[in-house]
Every structure is written in C-alpha cells, then in structure tokens.
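Researcher: Let's try something more involved. This one mixes different molecule types, so please make sure each is placed in the same coordinate frame as the others.
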Amino acid sequence: MPLIRPKAAGAPASSPDPRTAPDVAALKAALQHGTPDARRAAARALAGVPEAAGLLAAALAGEEDIRVREAIFTGLAGLGTGECADLLLALLRSPDAGLRGGALDALAAMPARLPARLPALLRDDDPDVRLLACGLARVLASDEATALMCAVLEREAEPNVCAAAVDVLAELGEPQALPVLARCAARPGAPAFLVFATGIAMRRIRAASDRAGEAGA
Amino acid sequence: MAEAEPIRSGRRVLVIDDASLVRLYYRQLLEDDGFVVEEALNGLEALEALLVGPFDLLIVDVNMPRMDGLTFLRTLRRLTSAAAAIPALVTSTEAAAQDREAARAAGANFYLVKPLEPEVLTLHARLMCGVPA
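Model: All components are placed in one shared frame. Result:
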C-alpha cells in the first residue's frame, strides 16, 4: 500500500456537514457488494465518517482487491481514532500477510495512538504479534523506543522478537542500550544472526554517540 | 591453513526484507560465498528491481510494509516476463504448516524459518542457483 502520511497528533477526525452527510447505508451496500471501483469509492467516502470505522475494518476480512484494501487502510489511518487503532491492532493477528502489513502501515501513520497501546502489545502471548509491535516502536521518540526495546530484550526469550528489537535499536538506540545489547549477544545458544545484529547495533549506537559528542564539543 | 576461496559463481540474488540487519547479514554471508547481492525493502521495491536487472534467486521475507512478501510473489508469478520463473526462497519467523502452505500457494519454491544459521542460508542459495554445494 502507499505510504500513509502521519496525521498531526490530536487532530480531530473530520465531521461531515449534516447537509452533505454521506448515505452510510448506501455506502455500506456498495462496500460489501459493489464492483472494485464502487467498493473503493465507498471506502473513500466512508473515510470521512468516524462511526464507519467498524464497517471499514469488517470489510477488510473479505476484500481481496489491493486498491480497495489500500483505500480502507488509508481511511482508517485518516480517521485516526482510538477505535481505529484497536481495529487495526486486531489485524496483526490475521493469517493474511497483506492485512498484517496494511495494518502496520496504517498504525505507523497514527503515532499518537501507539504509546498507550504498545507496552501491552509487546507483552502479547503471541510472539508474532510481539515481533510486529517492535517495528511499530520506530514511530516513537528515540528515548521512548530505546526504553521499550531494552525492556523487551531483558525479558524476551524468542530470538526473532529480540532480533526485531535489536533492529529498532540499531536505528534509534541511545547509549543506555549498550549493556542490554551486550547481555543479549552473550546469552548461551544465541543464534548467529542475533550475535551479528547486536554487534552492528552496538557499533552504530557508539558511532552516533561519538558524532553527537564531537558536535557538542 | 588458509580457508578455501569461495566459488565465484556470480549468481545474482535479490534480498527482499524490511529489516536492515537481516539484509546486511544475508548480504555479508552471500557475498562471502561468491554471490552478487542486491537489496529491496519491500515487494514494491523488488518489482522495480526486477525491471532493471536479472536475478537467479529471490530471498523473500513475508511481513513487510507497503507490499508483503506473499503479495509480491503472487504478483511476480503472474508476470509474463522471464522474471516470473525466478526461484524464490521465503524466509519467515512463522513456522506453522499453514504459513508454509500459504507461501507455497503464493509461489515460493522453498520456505525457511528465521533466524537462519549461516550455512543453512548459503547451502540453500547454492542449491537453488545450481551452484555446487
């Protein structure tokens, strides 16, 4: 799906003018039974109706047309409500990789909704959900992302989730992550990839810290 | 005793993964084994890369932004160009039988569960490219 631009934090969802309010029942019918073009148009029209979030999310389950899916995800991200965020988070459990990816793109476009939800997601019972949640931490400020990813590394046993956290730290990590990364790499039986990844992340964090020190000197 | 030089097969591999460290890991291992490696961050970038250069092997992650690996493979296999026949090794964190079946149905030739040990990656790359293992 196309990159969804993040909405400004706290921006209200648009509320339709009652005189020109869309016919939600007709749009719902078009979304469920129309041609791909009609479904896409209906999804775009419903993107301005906050109460239609559930309707849009439900339509994703049976929707196979990529363009219609894009319109729905863009609409949910544009609405940007807490309900939209929860509906999108539920899709991270979908067996459909396209739905998981679309949900991640849409969630990344609504960063204001993530800080309250990420900690629980990072402790989810499903390691695949925890792994995807790590990627979402990229939209947070670097200190916040560093704290969350370090906490993941301290408690996480699943190597792929650790690798996802290390990938975020390699990009955003602050120096306080260095001892956590070192402990992660030193775990008995750590997979070769995790040892490699932690080494790269530590080098990048040290280099960024050195550059910041030189700039401040 | 010095390590034997890798066979310089020159086979071209496109690594498609949104995780930068995974791409770097695969690149290092494969280049050390004589492959030529290009990278793409998602399925859309991979389709663009395939317009530019021929590849002998695609290594494809499943969960990626913008276009996931299985949508990419379904799109690729519908193309009428020679690119549609490039073998694809799917690498994923998901180990369930249904995930493997979904990848196979999308057009994967082989499926490996992450994280990959170095020799597993290079062995499969060699086998799928017809390079002596």
